[in-house]
Amino acid sequence: MANSPSSKPPRGDIPLFKVALPPPELLMPRLQSVLYSGQISEGEPVAAFERGFGDLVGNPHCLSFYSGTAALHIALLLAGVAAGDEVISTAMTAEPTNQAILHAGATPRWADVDPSNGNLSAETVAAAITPRTRAILVVHYGGIPAPIAGINAVAARHGIPVIEDAAHALGARYDGRVLGSHSAFVMFSLQAIKHMTTVDGGMLTCADPALLPKGRRLRWFGIDRHAPRTEVDVSEIGFKYHMNNVNATIGLAQLEVIQPLLDRHCANGRSLDAALAGVSGLEICRFEDRAAPSYWFYTVLCDDPEGMSKHLAAHGIASSKAHKRNDLHSVFASSRRDLPGLDRFYARMLHLPCGWWVDDASREYMVEVLQRGW
Length: 374
Ligand SMILES: Cc1ncc(COP(=O)(O)O)c(C=O)c1O
Fold this sequence. Notes:
Layout: H1 24-35, H2 44-57, E1 62-65, H3 68-78, E2 86-89, H4 95-103, E3 107-110, H5 122-128, E4 133-139, H6 148-158, E5 162-165, E6 173-174, E7 177-178, E8 185-189, E9 202-206, H7 212-218, H8 245-276, E10 283-284, E11 291-292, E12 298-301, H9 305-314, H10 340-348, E13 349-352, H11 360-371
Parallel strand pairs: 2-3, 2-4, 4-5, 5-8
Antiparallel strand pairs: 1-9, 6-7, 6-11, 8-9, 10-12, 12-13
Helix pairs in contact: 1-8, 2-8, 3-4, 5-6, 8-11
The structure holds pyridoxal-5'-phosphate.
Residues 67-69, 93-94, 96-97, 139, 165, 167-168, 189, 191, 202 line the site of pyridoxal-5'-phosphate.
């Protein structure tokens, strides 16, 4: 057929994820310098990276960690979560979201997701509140902002803090502002395949700067790093969760190059939203007008995601469900409950490539392949 898509994309196979590191000429001299500086643990590069990251997400109250999971654990502790508490959460996420709740000694209580995008809603969160609810953990799944204004309004009525898990959503906007300052706490992951990586790392922004000293103590054995070591009293359980100067040096270089990459994720996602809206057999995700996703990957909904995935693979385009719904794991067995919205979303969703590595020709090819049906 004359207008049939070729079996291979224009520039080789299109992966679902790709590691983005700054160009070697920018990164390597700085890495060499920090590695042999004699100061590779937490020091000024970490503080500088926190300031720079705070600028990127519009919140100066920023703490770095060695992982997003560690950042979530400390967020839960700063929110007052303790053994025996419940944290409202979603099962449609990566496991660390909910493992962090277990780390804090609490139990996830699933709120159902909106089957049109996989995110929690204000209604499902409100329905899940119990007298034991101590925090609400909201994931912006795949980079689509959850309805945080409504969720924060519910939370405020009950005096419960909201923690956003923005691991998939660096650069996404809500009410015109990048995520990072809409809730009591916002966590970002800097793990290998996220929008921005420091190889591994995590960031936590806090609405209340008074919590920062405690966060700094908890991430380093319960000790204030600036106090004379023999004079401090450790009065709480602390962790080895801090970021080091090597990861922070990568992060500082990333901050110089990341914005065009984030912009490319967003532009690709918006183009796919427009181009796929009318494709038969496929639904695009719906979200609030006030939300502007940063499309870590591109989520589509259809009745035969397996068939669609095979069709895409035959044309060199990677796709996958990426995550197993967490309520199926035995470690979360005590949280099980009916989640009809999640049943529908999980059965129908598939994630497609959307990142900075997808150029215009590849994106148009993806659309063409999907227009052909599967
Ligand atoms: C939704 C979500 N939350 C939390 C995390 C944990 O982040 P990290 O791998 O940096 O610990 C990840 C990624 O792994 C994630 O995808």
